[in-house]
Amino acid sequence: MKSFEELLKSFETYFSERQFPSSPATLYDPAQYILGIGGKRVRPVCVLMGNELFDDLKEDAYHVAAAVELFHNFTLIHDDIMDKAPLRRGMQTVHTKYGEPTAILAGDATFVQSYVKLSAIQPPLLQEVMPLFNRTALEVCEGQQLDMDFEQKASVSLDEYVEMITLKTSVLLAASLKLGSIIGGASKGNRDHLYEFGKNLGIAFQIQDDYLDAFGDPAKFGKQVGGDILANKKTFLMIHALETASPSDKEKLEQLLQSNPEDKIAQVLAIFKNAGVDSWALQLKNEYFEKALQHLDAIAVMSKRKEPLQQLAKFLIQREY
């Protein structure tokens, strides 16, 4: 079994070739541009890890990994348009650099190109891969719509937020692992356990992300702490604070959501700490992490083969950036 880093290097070599035709450049250069911005490539590497958990790496796993990464970047292009985000990973977003109409088309082309990659795998596998890929693609869109819907809602429950995060973030991680396991010839039971491992790990990952935005070290986190607070985002932390804060703190928090004083972040963080939100978030993260590990333990392969996934899981939920 190879480590995440080894598989990442292998995927980057495969994916370094241009993924689009050269003409018309006005369409395909913007699509290629976002791929060059980079990223952690966690999802495509999870496809490779899902394959290698059960068998030697197959060429088809690289095709599916590329399809997953292309689909993910399609969502990023369109999400940036919806969020009016000027930067991604410190570089101009596609719509900022090339204009919104071109960015929409480049996103569409990137989505279609993901299916071009899928069509390269062996037909018997394609019959199993395609339904999962299609279902996941729709679920990610559903999650994004729920996220936008939440911006208009006065209150969001924890269960509603978990459902949104599951669809928007977790299912693609879970599906990446399961797609790889299909390529690797895993049994249905093993595939399902691997999917649940990825789904619960994805939720734990988001809890950690929400926690770092509020309580992380700015020098390690790489961006301003409290960004979610300034944007009035309904995160795990905000939802729990509104549900458990004292009546006076809840009233104050609701007032802060309607205003932007200079010390807004400090005031909200004080309310979070009064309500014990910081320790609660870490406990909730660990609960989902443990669920993930239980499903990984249940997979019927030698423990040695699971070690790279265990290491990746620990990195994702213990990271400080």
Key attributes of the depicted protein:
321 residues, Farnesyl Diphosphate Synthase, 1% strand, mainly alpha, single chain, two-stranded antiparallel sheet, globular, 16 helices
Question: What's a concise summary of this model?
Answer:
The chain is mainly α and 321 residues long. The chain has 16 helices and two strands.
Describe the structure.
With 321 residues, the protein is an all-alpha fold. It has a domain at 202-321: Farnesyl Diphosphate Synthase (Orthogonal Bundle). Helix content is 76%, strand content 1%. It contains 16 helices and two strands. Strands 1-2 form a two-stranded antiparallel sheet. A hairpin with a 2-residue loop joins strand 1 (87-88) and strand 2. Helix 4 runs antiparallel to helix 8 (158-183), helix 7 runs antiparallel to helix 8 (158-183) and helix 9 (188-215) runs parallel beside helix 16 (303-318). The longest helix is centred in the middle third of the chain and has 30 residues, at 123-152. The mean pLDDT is 95.
